[in-house]
Amino acid sequence: MSTMQELRKKLQQAITGPLVPAVNKLRLSPDALTVIGIALNLAAAVIIGFGHIFAGGIVFLLAGLFDMLDGALARHIGQTSKFGALLDSTADRLTEAAIFFSFIFITTVTVWPYNVTLEMVFIFLAATGSFLTSYIRARAEGLNINCTVGIFTRPERVIVLTLGLLLNAVFIAVAIVVVLSWITVIQRFIHVMHNTRGTKE
Fold this sequence. Notes:
Structural class: mainly alpha
Low-confidence stretches: none
CATH superfamily of the largest domain: CDP-alcohol phosphotransferase transmembrane (TM) domain
CATH topology of the largest domain: Four Helix Bundle (Hemerythrin (Met), subunit A)
CATH architecture of the largest domain: Up-down Bundle
């Protein structure tokens, strides 16, 4: 383990160590902490988008604490699982995308919601759904779980987007990608959940 990794691990233990027993008394599961972290990260993205950068930073910092606590609690109570690992890493990708998306709005003169268009939201959702579809499969296969399920994988996305470009109907194509890619994300997530519940990481 490198010096940087050791320092990072010690810092995380110093922060989470005193808090884990207290959180455990609240009878919150590690997955519940992950969901709270997701909610806080999304809230931070909204706050930043409205131009309240400092307040958004505080909420983002609090969300980061929950990001550390879920894994620490899972190890403390012996509930580490493959599903928990997938949930945690997928949540990280989703919330990072939301935070970076919020930065778009603070680079312009007006702030959210005055400079948001429906097209921007759909493009963000399409991009996020597309990379999560691929990410969940890759993460699941890293956990030795086959995850080729889903109605809308990369070949289908390429076909729909190509037709949208050729027919000058890009927004319609993006809307289709949004709906079908997120259905696929849910399908893959449920598939992994059914194949990992109770399975140790």
